Automatic annotation (TrEMBL):
<dbReference type="InterPro" id="IPR007197">
    <property type="entry name" value="rSAM"/>
</dbReference>
<dbReference type="InterPro" id="IPR058240">
    <property type="entry name" value="rSAM_sf"/>
</dbReference>
<keyword id="KW-0949">S-adenosyl-L-methionine</keyword>
<keyword id="KW-0408">Iron</keyword>
<dbReference type="InterPro" id="IPR006638">
    <property type="entry name" value="Elp3/MiaA/NifB-like_rSAM"/>
</dbReference>
<dbReference type="InterPro" id="IPR051198">
    <property type="entry name" value="BchE-like"/>
</dbReference>
<dbReference type="GO" id="GO:0046872">
    <property type="term" value="F:metal ion binding"/>
</dbReference>
<dbReference type="Pfam" id="PF04055">
    <property type="entry name" value="Radical_SAM"/>
</dbReference>
<keyword id="KW-0479">Metal-binding</keyword>
<protein>
    <recommendedName>
        <fullName>Radical SAM core domain-containing protein</fullName>
    </recommendedName>
</protein>
<dbReference type="InterPro" id="IPR013785">
    <property type="entry name" value="Aldolase_TIM"/>
</dbReference>
<keyword id="KW-0411">Iron-sulfur</keyword>
<dbReference type="GO" id="GO:0005829">
    <property type="term" value="C:cytosol"/>
</dbReference>
<feature type="domain" description="Radical SAM core">
    <location>
        <begin position="185"/>
        <end position="402"/>
    </location>
</feature>
<dbReference type="GO" id="GO:0003824">
    <property type="term" value="F:catalytic activity"/>
</dbReference>
<dbReference type="GO" id="GO:0051536">
    <property type="term" value="F:iron-sulfur cluster binding"/>
</dbReference>
Length: 459
């Protein structure tokens, strides 16, 4: 009997979209990474014939993608989608549905949050994978039955997301992904892949889609099996795409000890909270191959920190960046401009604070009411947001009515942040002397080109 065919899909779009781990936006720079949802879906599909089409990174048009799908003739399509691109995604799924006799399963922020509405409104979607790490995907595709985190029309009214104490996901099929096509500024070289050691987040930041996901550790033996396979394939550059690596210090220490145990070392980028790093943890990160850490700073205003339930103090933030600098670990700082109740002058202070902590890179995003967050619910309750499906965290404008800051002011602030942070002699020299190979040069030149175009649009 021939194997059933499964297509793992990142669909095409009119713009360059990033869809991954229940998040989505228009790409802010010349970067991309292997979609976490699809990487780990492949781990459940070893008994199927699988291919991957990532139309975003492969630069495929809608018609080119449709032809590839017809040629493969899948029994199932497992596709990413996102609120930022949802109207385009649905149009594409409708055409896939009409041209191919296959079932379509989706994974993304809006379908995960509003699965009942999506399944009732869009017949082209057969099912939704609400949790890519903890599910019975293989059983569902083989037998049409599901008891774990896949919702379809048969279990729609009774569905509830379930968690386990610890999850095992298996080893992804890395060989079916075109890993050499993905690039990130804080990755040393290619090929690289996304990698997870946990699912969800134990913190409740009100603006973040992970606010209402439960934190679950990944089984350490399962992690080791994947690392062994990566070593066999010669893939030693990782993007650890946990919402907050080391949020469980004991688990984090076991993972870094495991990473340190290989003769051919890994190099990795991860994201952390600033209050989850100390001297001992910083040493463990460096020893295990950590090349860069992304920290969510969000705001320099400690009152706002409390309101958004991030609860960070300025001295904690400064200490975390200094710990990394002392060990030669690069840093990225994420800031959010335009959070509720913050003035125009507050935003200027955030920019100055970014200069003070002086990370290697910084992002400045406009406060955006993403799905399944308290922030979105509060704006709806105040009547200053119309609950649009599509929201874009990379936008230069508010998706809601901010009474403190105008659209023109937020555009000015984003432009000001870029100029003050990136167009500095000290930053430019540091960037030039950090380049170690042609891969990093290509990534940085692409970033510079896109950032300058963005600056031109805001002026």
């Amino acid at each position: 009997m021939s194997k059933k065919r499964v297509l793992l899909l990142n669909p095409p779009g009119e713009k360059q979209y990033t869809r991954d781990y229940f998040c989505g936006d228009e790409a802010k720079g010349a970067y991309s990474w292997p979609p976490t949802d699809l990487i780990y879906a492949s781990a459940k599909l070893h008994s199927f014939e699988c291919i991957v089409i990532d139309a975003m990174v492969e630069g495929l048009s809608k018609q080119q993608t449709l032809k590839l799908i017809r040629d493969f003739a899948p029994d199932y399509i497992i596709s990413l989608c996102s609120s930022v691109s949802f109207p385009e995604d649905i149009d594409f799924f409708k055409q896939c549905y009409s041209e191919n006799s296959c079932q379509i399963m989706v994974s993304g922020d809006y379908p995960r949050s509003q699965f009942k509405e999506v399944l009732e409104k869009y017949p082209c979607i057969d099912s939704i994978m609400v949790n890519f790490a903890i599910n019975d995907l293989s059983l569902y595709l083989a037998e049409g039955e599901t008891n774990l985190n896949i919702v379809n029309r048969s279990n729609l009214n009774s569905f509830k997301e379930n968690y386990v104490d610890q999850f095992t996901i298996g080893v992804p099929q890395f060989e079916i992904f075109k890993l050499n096509l993905y690039i990130m500024p804080l990755i040393k070289n290619t090929p690289f892949t996304t990698f997870i050691t946990e699912f969800g987040c134990k913190y409740g930041c009100t603006f973040c889609f992970y606010e209402k996901t439960k934190y679950v550790r990944r089984n350490l033996d399962d992690i080791k099996s994947e690392l062994d396979e990566l070593q066999r394939l010669g893939i030693r550059n990782l993007f650890i795409n946990d919402p907050s690596f080391y949020s469980d210090p004991k688990h984090g220490e076991k993972v870094t000890t495991l990473l340190s145990s290989y003769d051919r070392p890994f190099s990795y980028l991860c994201g952390m909270r600033v209050d989850n790093i100390d001297d001992e943890i910083a040493n463990s990160l460096k020893k295990s191959g950590c090349f860069a850490v992304a920290f969510g700073v969000e705001t320099s205003n400690e009152e706002t920190q409390k309101k958004i339930r991030k609860n960070l103090a300025q001295n904690q933030i400064e200490r975390a960046f200094n710990l990394c600098k002392k060990r030669g670990i690069k840093t990225l700082a994420h800031f959010i401009l335009g959070l509720t109740d913050e003035s125009f002058e507050d935003q200027r202070k955030h920019i100055n604070f970014a200069l003070k902590i002086n990370p290697n890179f910084a992002t400045f995003n406009v406060a955006t009411p993403v799905w399944n967050t308290t922030f979105r619910e509060e704006l709806n309750a105040k009547g200053v947001f119309n609950n649009d499906i599509s929201v874009n965290i990379s936008s230069d404008e508010f998706a809601w009515q901010n009474k403190q800051i105008s659209t023109e002011q937020i555009k000015h602030l984003k432009s000001l942040a870029f100029r003050k942070f990136y167009i500095r002699p000290s930053f430019i020299f540091k960037l030039i002397f950090s380049i170690r190979n042609l891969f990093q040069l290509r990534v940085i030149l692409g970033e510079v080109n896109l950032r300058l175009k963005s600056l031109g649009r805001n002026n």
